[in-house]
Predict the 3D structure of the following.
Amino acid sequence: MDGELNPLVRDDVGTVDAVAREHTGAPTPAADRTVARRPKTVRWFLIVGAVLMLVLGAFYGFNRYRSQAIATFFANNKPPPAQIAAVTANSESVPRFATGIGSVAAVHQVTITPEIGGLVTGILFEPGATVKASDPLVQFNDAPERGDLANYQAQERWAGISLQRSQNLAQRQVAAQSTVDQNQTQFEQARAQIAKTEAIIAQKLIRAPFAGRLGVRQIELGQFLSPGMPIVSLTDLRQLYVNFTLPSTERAEIAIGQDVNVTADAFPGRAFNAKITTIDPQIRADTRTMTVQATLANPDEALLPGMFVNAAVVLPPEPDKVVLPETAIDFTLYGDSVYAVREDGSDSSGKPLVKAFRTPVKTGARWQGKVAILSGVNPGDRVVAAGQIKLQDGAPVVVTGNPPPPPPSSPTPQ
């Protein structure tokens, strides 16, 4: 205990030393400076924390005020009722069709070729021209055959004279009957050679076998043609065949004489009328389809052989089905639906509110801008026909006097 001081004594000594350093101006130790700065640091942190609390509180209050203002705006700012066009669902007969795809073929179509070979000495047609039956088209060189014809004609005359002379002599019993028979044979041979030569000459003048329109010329003047070489195509476009296929399950409803509506992509909005003339008696085993042929009148020559067409056989209609315009149906991947228009409650003034409610429906056949409704809509129900894009389920609406948009002009049934 001798080497140690009492704590009270050390505190007194420290206090005396501090007072002495203050009067004498001596420097303060590092421990004393740390103790002096600590109150200032705590006060600075308190000020910064208070400022941050004020800023965060201001942001929080602004966000609360903005959320309440937005909610109040949308609560008091209701949009006006949407203007729509509505139609009333009615019942009518729904046409039925058996549809298929096919192509057009000509009733009379041929590629003209020579029966015998020869040198082309004359081309008597223009490509693409319309010709009548038996009109001359191509002339081959027939000078040798005409020389042979003159020779055979001379032989015929000489044989005829000889036959007449021998017959006169035989009647007077001056000539034998064998001489008469020989002269008769020579006369008939000469006539046969004439007929053969005239046929060859006729073969060297190629004529149109029937009336129609010519195609592209495939020969040149002075060209030697062998038998069977193509010269030009000839097609009668006034009457055509429509060959198409139908599922074999529809065989009971298909009969000869039924009307067929034919449409082609080349003539949108136009339908051609045809009648079934042939039903193939065999069913294709690979596709289980049957081939049907209809005959089509083509007076304006609009359709051409080889065209792709859609064919729809007209079947007996199906009566008493609900029908709506095609524009009233909302077709989606999740199902078809319509907006039914009906009164629901009233406004502050007591007037009834008209609203549109989405209603799922099951659709049937589609034809000429109309759709058959199998379920979901009853006759007499009012349905939105135009303006569905701006509607939601239960939205208030105002039915205007504007008529619904016209259906697209497409005669193709679906």
Notes: Residues 94 and 238 are 33 Å apart (CA to CA). Confidence is low (pLDDT under 50) at residues 1-20. The longest strand covers residues 90-112.
